[in-house]
Amino acid sequence: MPYPKGHKIKVRNTIVESAAQAFRTHGIHDVSVPFIMKGAGLTHGGFYSHFDNKEQLVAEACRYAISDTIALLQKVADQEEQNPKINAVIDYYLSPYHRDKTEMGCIIPALSAEISHSSEEVRQVFTLELERMIAFISDLAGIEPSKGSALFSTMVGSLVLARTVNDPELSDSLLSSGKRYAKELVTI
C-alpha cells in the first residue's frame, strides 16, 4: 500500500525538527544521524532517502530553527502592549527560561562556534539566516541594520556566556547586564 500524498515531506519535516532540537542541545558534532532519526521516531536507514548527507540536514535545521525563533519572538512582541516592543523580545531572549531551555532556544548562540568549521553550504545558509534575524531585530526595534547587528550580538553574547558559566549568580548577572545594555543600544 503506497504512502499517502505528502508523507515524504511530513517525514522530512519531522527529521528536521528532531535535528534542530538535537543541535540546539548538543551541538553538531556530538549528534549522530541515528540519534536524530531516533528522536524523529524513525530508523536511521531511511535518512538518505531524505538527505544527501548530514551537512544538508544541518543547513535545513538552521533554516527551520531560525524561522521558529523569529516566529516565537514575533509572538512575544505581539503580546507586548507597551512600546518599544523590542524590550519584550530582549527580556525573553535574555531570560533564565531561554537560557535553560536550549532544546527550544535560538540556534545561533548554540551553534555559532561550530558553524565556523562547517562546510561552505552550511555557512552560507547560516549567514543568510543570521542576516534575516538581524533584519527582524532591526525592524522591530526601528533601528538601522548596523545598530541591529550590535544589538543582536549583545543579546547572543550575553546568552552564550550565561549558558557557559557554572555559577548561577554570575549567569543571572550576565543576563541582567545584557538586558540593560541591549535596551540602552535601542535608545542611543
UniProtKB/TrEMBL annotation:
DNA-binding region(s) in UniProt: 32-51
Q: Does the keyword Transit peptide apply?
A: no
Q: Which domain of life is it from?
A: Bacteria
Keyword annotations from UniProtKB, A to Z: DNA-binding, Transcription, Transcription regulation
User: Any idea where the HTH tetR-type domain is?
Assistant: 9-69
Q: Which Pfam families match?
A: TetR_N
Q: What is this protein called?
A: TetR family transcriptional regulator
Provenance organism: Paenibacillus odorifer
